[in-house]
Amino acid sequence: MNISTLDKSFAMQMSRDELLRAYRTMIEIRAFDERIEKDFAAGKIPGFGHVYLGAEAIAAGACHDLAADDYIASTHRGHGHCIAKGCDLEGMMLEIFGKAGGICGGKGGSMHIADFDKGMLGANAIVGGSPPIVVGAALNQKIRKTGKVAVAFAGDGASNQGTTFEAMNMAVVLQVPAIFVIENNGFGEHTASSYSVGAESIAARAAAFGMPAEQIDGVDFFAVRESMLKALERARTGGGPTTIEMKVPRYLGHYIGDPQAYRTPAELKAARAIDPLVTFREKVVSAGLLDAETFAVIDLETYARVEAAAEKALEAPYPDPSALERDVYISY
Ligand SMILES: Cc1ncc(C[n+]2csc(CCOP(=O)(O)OP(=O)(O)O)c2C)c(N)n1
Predict the structure, then answer these.
(1) E strand or H helix at 91, and its extent?
(2) CA of residue 194 to ligand 1 center, whole Å
(3) Is the C-beta atom of 126 inside 6 A of ligand 1?
(4) Please, which contacts does 286-292 make with residues 24 or more away whose CB atoms are closer than 8 Å?
(5) How far is CA 226 from CA 43, 206, 230, 234, 252, in A?
């Protein structure tokens, strides 16, 4: 593997604790969504499931330097964003299984997890829903001069939505502290982004709205974090919005159970061969910062914790019917 001097020195600027925190986030996302995939496929979870497998470095790298009171808004593929922003793992598991005690009382499910205490404004089943929400949150920060930022995660498919265009334009016009993270996994449902995105790149299209934008490797945690740090500095110092297009593989189908007849076996194999966790481990071990055994111990501990959370969620009761009409409207 080719490790550039920049990557190496950037990794070396992180303390051991920071590197461990970054890896723990990624392996938690991996273990969590592997378990979710299994239980969805077995019919134990209601609704639809979209997993974040293959994109772990994006959520972990983009949220690494956010505080609890910075904001994010997510997508239908949002488990990774929730975990990286600090949502409780057990609470998420209960929520996805539709059980009492879930983060949203078990009434939201996979595509509607929100936790305002953690700055997580919500997963979103509406493709292109997160950019306008984030511009509103960012405008609020600007007006109140909090120095906080808001980050929208959106896919390549969402990047084609009018909501995204309007949000990007407004973010530039109002110079709000917003960051648009476009996760380009090559597909919107079953349509390749090479067909559906009519521009040279999504970053180039964002730049046309008048903001700094770049395209990076979303498999590399260090590249994601480095790009985010620049955007965060810009946002926190009144420099306005940024877009970062991050390229990643999509390991599975659009949803759990998607037969993927539109991808050849060779394409699927090639996608699975690109692994953000392996990339991270190789960089950190070869730079002499952590050893392979440390990672193995974390892996074991994390998978056990995720399994325990899933078993607890399987056993947990569904919400009481009396909860049906609660939390429908908000009162200020
Ligand atoms: C407004 C709207 N249009 C269409 C859909 C149906 N839909 C759900 S996910 C999806 C594809 C989204 O693709 P992308 O934004 O690239 O995210 P990915 O699934 O690749 O993470 C579509 C079209 C929707 N949920 N909302």
Answers:
(1) helix 89-96
(2) 16
(3) yes
(4) 286/1, 286/3, 287/3, 287/8, 287/11, 287/12, 289/11, 289/12, 289/14, 289/16, 289/19, 290/16, 290/19, 290/20, 290/23
(5) 40, 19, 7, 13, 27
Residue of 51, 76, 124, 156 best suited for mutating to test ligand 1, as the one with most atoms within 8 Å of CB: 76
Q: Which CATH superfamily is domain 17-257+291-317 in?
A: Thiamin diphosphate (ThDP)-binding fold, Pyr/PP domains (3.40.50.970)
**For residue 17, how far is its CA from the centre of ligand 1 (angstroms)?**
36
Q: Are 250 and 58 in contact (CB under 8 A)?
A: no
pLDDT digits (tens, 9 = 90+) for 73-92: 999 999 999 999 999 999 99
Whether 118 lines ligand 1, by a CB cut-off of 6 Å, is no
70 contacts: CB under 8 Å, gap ≥ 6: 119, 148, 149, 150, 151
Supply the pLDDT for residue 3.
41
Mean pLDDT for the stretch of residues 132-147: 98
| Cβ atoms of 316 and 322 closer than 8 Å | no
pLDDT score recorded for residue 9? 67
Amino acid at 275: D
Would you state the pLDDT for residue 2? 39
Residue 203 CA to residue 74 CA, distance in Å, equals 19
Does residue 270 have a pLDDT over 50? yes
CA pair distance 10, 232, nearest whole angstrom = 17
- Residue showing tokens 């964002």: 206
Residue with the bigger pLDDT between 24 and 9: it is 24
Instruction: State the residue for tokens 């959106």.
Output: 154
Cβ neighbours of 195 (radius 10 Å): 9
Domain ranges for the chain, please list them: 17-257+291-317
CA distance 69 to 43: 36
pLDDT reported for residue 1:
32
